[in-house]
# Entry
Amino acid sequence: MSENIGMFGASGSGDTSGFGGLVRSAANFGSSERPYGSYFDEVTDELERAYPEFSDAIEKVIVDRGELTLHVKREKLFETAMKLRDTQSLRFEVCLGVNGVHYPEDKSRELHAVYPLLSMTHNRRIRLEVSVPDSDPHLPSLVEVWAGNNWHERETWDMFGIIFDGHPGLTRILMPDDWPGHPQRKDYPLGGIPIEYKGATVPAPSERRSYR
Amino acid sequence: MTTRDSYASATDTTEGRVYSVTGGDWDSLVTEIGQTKEERVVVNMGPQHPSTHGVLRLVLELEGETITEARAGIGYLHTGIEKNTEYRTWTQGVTFVTRMDYLAPIFNETAYCLGVEKLLGITNDIPERASEIRVLMMELNRISSHMVALGTGALELGALSPMIFAFREREKVLDVFEMVSGLRMNMAYVRPGGVAQDLPKGAVAKIRETVNELRHNFKDNEKLLVGNTIWMLRTKGIGYLDLAGCTTLGITGPVLRSAGMPWDLRKTDPYCGYENYEFDVVTTDTCDVYGRFLIRMQELEQSLRIIEQACDKLDKSEGQPVMVADKKIAWPSQLSVGSDGMGNSLEHIREIMGTSMESLIHHFKLVTEGFRVPAGQVYAAVESPRGETGVHLVSDGGTRPYRVHFREPSFNNLQATSAMAEGGMIADVIGAVASIDPVMGGVDR
# Structure
């Protein structure tokens, strides 16, 4: 994650005012240790049993705020998804779409795709996370696994420029077909129109002084 | 001398040269069709069409009156709300997300706030009264949303009276919203840590009165539609989507429940204390438009049951706080509903401007800077009238969200249009789309 330096950017204590209150902790990028708690141990055990290449496919397992995140290598994403869907003891039959996150500072892992999965059979939720470099933003499409991912993958392509290989028709969905750029990326400015009010101009939101 | 624009074609008119931007999609489709020998009719329905629920565009390929291919085109209402929230504080985000699915603002707000609270780690510190008010408002909102779904759905299939009755009832719910929050839609009433302010005096009594009226008036629409021959002919067996189709397409909400699956997050993964309320999950096994219609009708009654229970709880918790105790997170301002909506109460202004410098500083810092949220990501979901509204929030530890993503049920469920409409009659596509109940504000965000 980025370090914010500047007039209002806090560093060290994470609190410039006494009113920030919360101590700002660095993002947890390390893998969690077993036991994970809740049903998370069972899910990872079952996946390990069903998928012999588990240790090779999963980069790290993170348990944070009562949620399990499996970081998967992109080469193994499709296989992992199939196992998660079809193994009797896992049965993640619903994928709630895919969402991109852009971390420009996370070198050669700039673009992340996040898949929230739901197992209605066992009433469990887990999250898959895959990262790809900005220079080679290719991911296997999961439309074959969960057909409902179709529009979600189109949206993620539209907003982040992640290319889902094997998607039946990867076109823009929210922005016009001829739109240049991918708006949700951090290097894409929010823009806006400077508004003049009684002679004073109010800059666009992304141009304003910020407390970050 | 003119410059060439690859995206706009130019025509010379008497007024001079005119550039018009043309959708590449439509033009290329027409050319493509012109090259094949067989006769195909492609109808472009929408985006400006009264029965497409806002700006939804359907491209239908027809053989006679039968649809052989249906494609939905969206994006006409894309407003960049997700991007905008990255430049505002966590609290300001509420005012943005409430405008996504504009028929279910309270659900957007609650899902977002549950996410923020999970990130902050204060989920268990939310006062009970705040959760009770959230439940009350959500169920009222479910009624107002279902009323639009039923009313417009019936209108689109040619039944006018149900629409009038439905909007009559919806007004009553909106009146309650106005009394509580000062606004009828997009209230930004649910805030991280609780709700913006307590219910005004006499609100619970008024809500009980409204519940009775609604329960009585719902019968009007029931009499008009349930068992009505024309209505049955237009809805039975239409828009068929079975359970396997629903799960692979990630469909949730009434459409999933019409396939016989009793999946409701209020029961399976309770939030805001839903486990303390008694209500039933309504299902049918018809997988069609009629089943979805029946589910919505019966969910109205279930919502009234929950509202009554919430009212009882609210009577008991009278006077308790509605905002988290941590003053570093809680909105500092005491609000009140005035004639022009919700604003700072006079007492609060008097205190910060006249008596306490510290209060003023506290107010200023928290309102302009906001609170910091520890880095990490969470997913929070609520059962909205249309299905699972999920929020994926990412924080980098700052006072503004790093990423806000809404998994909108309308967006996801609209994918089922093709599955429901293809092979059916063109007149039935309207009923099928209406039974999905998409809200384009939520679809496009």
